[in-house]
Specification:
The chain has a 5-stranded mixed β-sheet with strand order 2-1-3-10-4, with helices on both faces. Strands 7-6-8-5-9 form a 5-stranded mixed β-sheet. It folds into 2 domains: 206 residues, 3-Layer(aba) Sandwich (D-Maltodextrin-Binding Protein, domain 2); 98 residues, D-Maltodextrin-Binding Protein, domain 2 (3-Layer(aba) Sandwich), CATH 3.40.190. The termini are far apart. It has 15 helices and 10 strands. It is globular, with a radius of gyration of 22 Å. 45% of the residues are buried. 42% of the residues lie in helices and 16% in strands. By secondary structure, the protein is an alpha/beta fold.
Length: 336
């Protein structure tokens, strides 16, 4: 007589649904590349799932496009260059965006050229023609680069193209140099048959424009309403990048399924460049993931405000926040 209730109880236990996962819509800054291995590893290793997150990731179509889509609610979180936030927030205060996890300690923005152009130093850019995309961070930040290197910017002619055409114009000899990220321009040149030894790179961060780079960004009001989700997302991404940095080749292997047309060898070089140049900086090695020097961030904000004629410059803490980061022990530099 007492068996039936037990059977019913077991049946109910077996039928109990699994714990629901929180959906998160995430947008990259561009098409899938090796530099995104931290995100794909977080998915492949189950780090998002272990945090109770169901993450849908889509490719991006440029930094400003990603920021606009996150601000508009199409995505919850995006991966984008934080330098674009200052102008966006000034133009759209009702959709203010926030840098919640600074991933690149250094901007990869640069001027790239071929040796045959005669360009070797910033001064050699005077009188040249530079190819750029309309919303290219390198182009937008060029006034600061010009000032830091005493370049007469009025002598430079700009040609604006779609992002996928910019570097090919230089390879074809139509323009002298291009702006963009080192991780994009260099490999576009190489992909077009240019030997690495024939490429000249003028990195902004090494030539007087010491700015932070790409970060996880979201709307400030969304972050405040979903603080726990933001922290869990960041925690999983840190774990993903730790794995990718320990074994970059395996990291790239998790990117390939998202775009089978990419070349794993090229993407491994691209990822290693980011690790060496933009992640493993002295500040990162000392403080770990997500560290921000408030004074340096304020200089970053001030410089952007000056470029875009935003007066007064906003306080840096209106553009970034470290309160969503997991504990310091979870942000330690990975043992490589």
């Amino acid at each position: 007589m007492r068996v039936a209730p037990v059977i019913v109880s077991v049946g109910l236990t077996l039928a109990a649904p699994a714990m629901a996962q929180t959906p998160v819509k995430f947008c990259l800054d561009w098409a899938y590349q090796g530099v995104h291995a931290g995100f794909t590893e977080a998915d492949a290793q189950g780090f998002f799932a272990k945090q109770g997150l169901s993450v849908k990731t889509d490719r991006g179509f440029g930094v400003t496009d990603t920021i606009s889509k996150v601000a508009g609610g199409a995505y919850d979180i995006g991966f984008a260059d934080m330098n674009a936030l200052v102008k966006f927030n000034a133009d759209h205060p009702e959709q203010a965006m926030l840098d919640v996890f600074q991933i690149y300690d250094k901007t990869p923005a640069a001027i790239t050229a071929l040796k045959k152009s005669g360009i070797r130093t910033p001064a050699d850019l005077q009188g040249k023609t530079i190819a750029a995309a309309e919303a290219d961070v390198g182009r937008l930040l060029f006034p600061a680069f010009a000032r830091a290197n005493h370049i007469d910017a009025t002598t430079i002619k700009w040609q604006i193209y779609a992002p996928n055409l910019r570097d090919s114009m230089v390879v074809q000899g139509r323009d002298d140099a291009s702006t963009g990220y080192t991780t994009t321009n260099i490999f576009n040149y190489v992909g077009a048959g240019v030997p690495l030894a024939d490429i000249v790179v003028l990195p902004y961060a090494n030539l007087g424009v010491d700015l932070y780079g790409s970060a996880l960004v979201t709307r400030a009001d969304w972050a405040a309403a979903h603080a726990d989700t933001v922290t869990k997302f960041i925690r999983a991404v840190i774990q993903g990048y730790d794995v990718a940095m320990r074994d970059p080749a395996a990291g790239v292997a998790t990117v390939v399924p998202h775009d089978p047309l990419i070349d794993p060898k090229v993407e491994l070089q691209r990822l290693q460049m980011v690790i060496d140049d933009d992640l493993l900086t002295p500040a990162f090695k000392e403080h770990g993931w997500g560290y921000i020097d408030p004074a340096r961030m304020q200089r970053t904000v001030n410089l952007n405000a000056e470029i875009y004629h935003i007066t007064p410059a906003p306080a840096a803490d209106t553009v970034y926040s470290t309160k969503f980061l997991p504990g310091q022990d979870e942000r330690a530099v990975p043992k490589l």
